[in-house]
Amino acid sequence: MHGMNQKVLGAFIVGLGLVAASYTYVNFGKPRSAYPTVSQQAAPIRSAIAVADVDNNGIEDWRDTFTTAEPVVIGEVAASYTPPTTVTGRLGISLFEDFVRAKNYGPFGRTQEELVTDAVTELARQTEQVLYGQNDIIIMESWTDTDIKNYGNAMGASVIQNGDDNLENEIVILTDIIQNQNNERVKELEVIAGFYKNMRDQALATPVPRKFLKEHLDLINVYEAIYQDILAMQNGAEDPAVALLRIRRYEDDALGLLLALENMYEALEPHANLFSAEDPAIIFGSFVEQPNP
Predict the structure, then answer these.
(1) Angle formed at CA 240 by CA 237 and CA 246, multiple of 5 degrees
(2) Domain range for residue 162?
(3) Final residue of a domain: which of 74, 105, 126?
(4) Residue of higher predicted confidence among 144 and 2
(5) Helices within 206-279 (DSSP H only)
(6) Which residue spans within 99-257 are E strands per DSSP?
(7) What is the pLDDT of residues 9-19, one digit of tens each?
(8) Strand pairing of 208-209 and 139-140?
(9) Is residue 206 packed enough to be buried (19+ CB in 10 Å), middle (13-18) or exposed (0-12)?
(10) Are residues 246 and 144 in the same domain?
């Protein structure tokens, strides 16, 4: 009783008192005859059971079953903690810690709405895209018509080579994966992501006349943006927070791609006489909205 928690003991006493009081109130005023008479019988004579110690080890035989002379060795338990590597995992732990910290501060702590807003801001910061610039590409300070033709055809060939008419749009594939649990189609997302990565890398390696610098960098960065979007869709099960954020960006990135392709066409259009109908650069014309007749 000495070691019992005083609050627990107090609660027990108060509870016992309430039960006793209720019992007294319910039965108050009832005649004694209302209660049954309990006859008292003499308790049977008890006889002690002999304690045996056959092996004379000083321990009763019934206790030998629960004892052993062998030392008890507790092996090491591998309980090392592995911090999460995904943005979602790191963000979840940080947000939980912030919630606990804010609760400890009571009325002086930050609200859950403020903490969630900060978490979303941090998520956007961690997934912010690094833009490629002039230092990442090969710029031609002087060029000839042949250089322009080679450049246009190299960029056009990259678009033609990195595509598959048999594959559906990435959003259609993602919808099928989510709604129908068709996880086999993740492989298709991998293929499409690879196309955009290839176009990005090929553009980075293609020498560009400075007059096409802006259009060139726009294409590289939009290729990179959509590559990251699809990569996040592909890894949605492991890193759902990033996937949701990139899916929200995807619509703007897809529109940006269309505009970048149109701008490339407009930049090459003044040099149309350098290209024939068989040249790969002609592909850029298919991305331009044709005026109604």
Answers:
(1) 120
(2) 134-287
(3) 126
(4) 144
(5) 213-234, 240-268
(6) 139-140, 208-209
(7) 333 333 444 33
(8) parallel
(9) middle
(10) yes
